[in-house]
Amino acid sequence: MAITDSAADDTLDELLRNKARIIELPDDNNEDEVTGVPFPGNHLRKNGIHHLPQWLQQTTIGLFHDDYNTVSSEALDKTAAECLPHLTGQDNQGIPLNRHGLPHLQRKQHASFLHTPLKGLPAPYAAMDASRPWLFYWCTAGLSFLREDVSMYRERLMETVRPLQNKIGGFGGGHGQLSHCACTYATLLALATVGGLDVIDREAMWHWLGTVKQADGGFRMAIGAEEDIRGAYCAMTAITLLNLPLELPPDSPTREAGLTHFTDRLGEWISTCQSYEGGISSAPNHEVHGAYAFCALACLCILGPPHITIPKYLDVDRLIRCLTTLQTNPEGGFAGRTNKLVDACYSHWVGGCWALLEAAVVGPHEAKQNGSVSSAESRLWNREALVRYLLTCCQQPGPKGGMRDKPSARPDGYHTCYSLSGLSAAQNQYTYNTTASTTDRETGRLLSAFNWKGERASEGDMKGLSVERNDVVELVHPVFVIRFEAVEEARRKFARGGFPVVEGTD
Ligand code: FPP
Ligand code: ZN
């Protein structure tokens, strides 16, 4: 039907004259009609308890609901339905509430959950043999994010990973397994967390990394394995934390293609991973995923200052637009990709992108006075919503603790570690010092990743996020995802670069 001018005039006229047409949506009737999801928050308003934030008001939730049902939309509705009772405070699962009405962070329980696997695992965990370094990292780093002492694991971890280190350099997942970038990254970060970096053969690592560097600038995950953005981030993390020479080893096959440094063509290769959607894929022309955005951004923050390398190699506006669509409504956490479900681990993989992007966007303009790029005023994402999702939906109630993907999932080390790191990203402020040196003159080490500063949530921040001091997680380094102290120790330990001369050799 064509809408004539007069029909449009009538409608407007009618609206203006007939006040009865402008109706307020009822608060407690026909809830299911608005969203297709039962809305459980009304008891709060009736009882005058804590105020629900705007994005959890019944009328807001219904605004963008898609009526066309698909497998995906049904899964999305089911997830919203399982989360809403927790988000709105109808079901706190018996977790004690803080003074703002959100469940407290169950520090003791989560710490105990993360200590358990480090003491030994039951037989079914044999299936995770190839992921042992990851278990070490998630548990030790997660504990450190809770300010737990992990130094008692130093000797044991060093002895456990010694046989996972291959003679050709790098670490495999289990005994006799090929060196792999992901296992090497996880082992390195776990060792840095407990202060056990001495076990690493840095020179062999340098040689091995030279064999996974590719002529197009990227890195393979292992010799003969896939080339992807995780490899680039993991390799550059090892090179920088361990202060390995940036020059490619003489035996690196990539030298034949004319490359001389690990950084050669790397930024350009990362550019090719940005897709038409604006997001980042594992490799050119693959599907975009939030986790790969973190790898790309963190890798660029190792290459140089965020306000220089990120806009140089990525279309920042389009990346921001893509990542903002991953913060889900009504849950407030992040999904990994378009039209998929919220999952607590993306609190880090996507939540961790914002500090890096904020520093890229703000640049040195606002840093003139104190030399720092501030993210405090940035509203690129909803920190409050992420904190609410993690505290209300992702904490496993009961004495065993642990954090989980979503309420219907079981807790595990991976989700506990990355939920805590995501909480830290949302609660604290991370700034980049634009006036600090970016390269070490003596050794050539890339220093940009060491120029970050963390500031604990202020009283105002905590009030805005509805948390108390004890609900706030420690500062987590935005590029290396371990405690700042562990990063600083690695920086100092290898400041002189080079390789130790082994007696009896030339
Ligand atoms: C899909 O899983 C997940 C991916 C395609 C990417 C996962 C990548 C990471 C977590 C980054 C790893 C980084 C390093 C440094 C090794 P899914 O289909 O189960 O999940 P989804 O439905 O949430 O996308
Ligand atoms: Zn997950």
Helix/strand class: mainly alpha
For the CA atoms, what is the radius of gyration? Answer: 25 Å
Q: Sketch the topology as an H/E string, one letter per element.
A: HHHHHHHHHHHHHHHHHEHHEEHH
Task: Report the uncertain regions.
Answer: 1-36, 367-377
Specify the CATH class of the largest domain.
Mainly Alpha
What's the overall geometry?
globular
> Distance between termini?
89 Å
Major β-sheet annotation? 3 strands, antiparallel
Q: How many helical stretches?
A: 21
Please state the second-level CATH architecture of the largest domain.
Alpha/alpha barrel
Count of domain modules = 2
**Distinct compounds present:** farnesyl diphosphate, zinc ion
Number of strands: 3
Helix content class: 40-55%
What's the mean pLDDT score?
A: 89
> The CATH topology of the largest domain is what?
Glycosyltransferase
Strand order in the sheet with the most strands: 1-2-3
> Beta-sheet strand percentage?
under 5%
